[in-house]
Amino acid sequence: MTTTTVRPLHEIALLSQAERFKGRPKLCSDCGICGGELRPKMAQSCVFVNNKHEELELKLHGRNRRDGDELLFGISRAIHVIRMRPVNYEAQWSGVITTMGALLLEQGLVEGVICTHAAPGTRWAPLPVLARTPEEVRASAGNKPCISPNLEILDQVRASGLKRIAFIGTGCQVHALRALEDELGLERLYVIGLPCTDNTSYPDLLRFLKIASKSPDTVVHQEFMQDFRVWFRHENGTIEKVNFVDLDVSGLGGERAMFPAACMSCFDYQNGLTDLTVGYLGAPLPPEERWQWMFVRTERGEELFELLRPHLELGTYSEGGNRRPGIKAYIGMLRRPKVRPAAPIRKFVAWMQRTKGPKGLEFARSVIEQKLLRNLVFVRDLHGRLEGRIVPGYVYRALEYTAEVYEQEFERPLKR
After folding, report:
1. How far apart (Å, rounded) are the C-alpha atoms in residues 274 and 367?
2. In sequence order, what are the residues at sequence separation of 6 or more whose Cβ sits closer than 8 angstroms to the Cβ of residue 299?
3. What φ, ψ does residue 21 adopt, rounded to 5°?
4. Rounded CA separation 289/180 (Å)
5. What are the Coenzyme F420 hydrogenase/dehydrogenase beta subunit C-terminal domain coordinates in residue numbering (predicted)?
6. HSE (CB half, 13 Å, CA atoms) of 197?
7. Does 210 have pLDDT greater than 70?
């Protein structure tokens, strides 16, 4: 079998957005379909050509999302607050996903796991791999918040004749995988999801770290946390915390320059087409306790949860505050040019966010609604003719309570 890949994956990981997307459609997240033998299937599988989320959701669950939290979080059979015991301190959180992939191989449930290592000589550049041993899965621990062509590894799966695999990936990747699932000839597929928003290229990530952190070269983990701050964990174990409001987005050229157009046109932060999704957004935030939340979405997801359950500690949810006034104010901010406030104002805003802002599940709802609104505005501003094909119906339903404010600010209806 031949491959259409021009450059090896470890070189692709280092490319800028301009180099990465040269010759690609305007909306491309480099999920990997276009880089391999499945390229002819791009039009039928790409979420940015034709978003089939609700069609695939109906096939997966026998129904679509109901009103309420499902509109934001996706369909699930159960939602758990979890962490590994013992914690894997090399992981981004506690090692839930890497342990799950390793256990699948150890127990012979799969023959390979598609996951993401770091490219040689880097900490953050993603290198998709087909892991065949538990050790290879565990070596993928740690976040690589950059675009990664994980689906290109399906060429290796097909060439190797593997029939039972697990896939760990993001929403755009999972959409394409589900759209092609019946054509891949697999006997067993476990789909493990990462919530994902605002990935970028490796050079742009390094640019962000240089602007946001006092010591960018020593950052080993970074995450946008539930206390309205970015946490940078450094090599010596210290944690540097930077308020969201203090980030100099203009110094990066703004969000639209920093993030790929595809990521700004994504409406599946919670990765709703997986068997099981593991994230952190709605989990409690006691310092250093590393709680996460897990969405068990399908029968196969229940199997994965039971496989991992002996290694888990279960926690409880919390929530507080009211996101809705802030979301309505955010709509006005989307319409006006962003201006970085003076330092005293930023300090006050950060205090207000932490003391009065939404917490727990309400924080998660707030963040997801902000992403839906921001991305809807982006699509309408720059790719309006695509709206009917790439914005799923649940977006308008989830944001319906903002319709009056949206129409006042943008002088057009929220719904198409």
Report:
1. 20
2. none
3. -100, 10
4. 39
5. 163-308
6. 19
7. yes
Contacts of 4 (CB under 8 A, 6+ apart): 35, 36, 37, 39
User: With the C-alpha atoms ordered 230, 247, 30, 52, is the resulting torsion angle positive or negative?
Assistant: positive
DSSP labels, 127-171: EEEEE-SHHHHHTT-S---B---GGGGHHHHHHHT--EEEEEE-H
CA distance 77 to 275: 10
Cβ-contact 130, 110 below 8 angstroms: no
Q: Express each pLDDT in 115-173 by its tens digit.
A: 999 999 999 999 999 999 999 999 999 989 999 999 999 999 999 999 999 999 999 99
Tell me the pLDDT tens digit for each residue of 230-255: 999 999 999 999 999 999 888 888 88
Residue 371 tokens read as 């992403």
CB atoms within 10 A of CB 88: 17
Strand 164-169 and strand 188-193: pairing?
parallel
Distance CA 37, CA 33 (A): 8
CA–CA gap between residue 150 and residue 35 (Å, rounded): 10
Q: How far is CA 121 from CA 10, 11, 14, 74, 216, in A?
A: 10, 11, 11, 37, 16
Whole-angstrom distance, CA of residue 107 vs CA of residue 118: 26
Phi, psi of 113 (to 5 degrees): -130, 120
192 beta partners: 168, 276
The beta strands (E) that lie in 201-356 are given as 219-224, 229-234, 239-243, 276-279, 292-296, 312-315, 319-320
Residue 32's closest CA among 175, 227, 213?
175
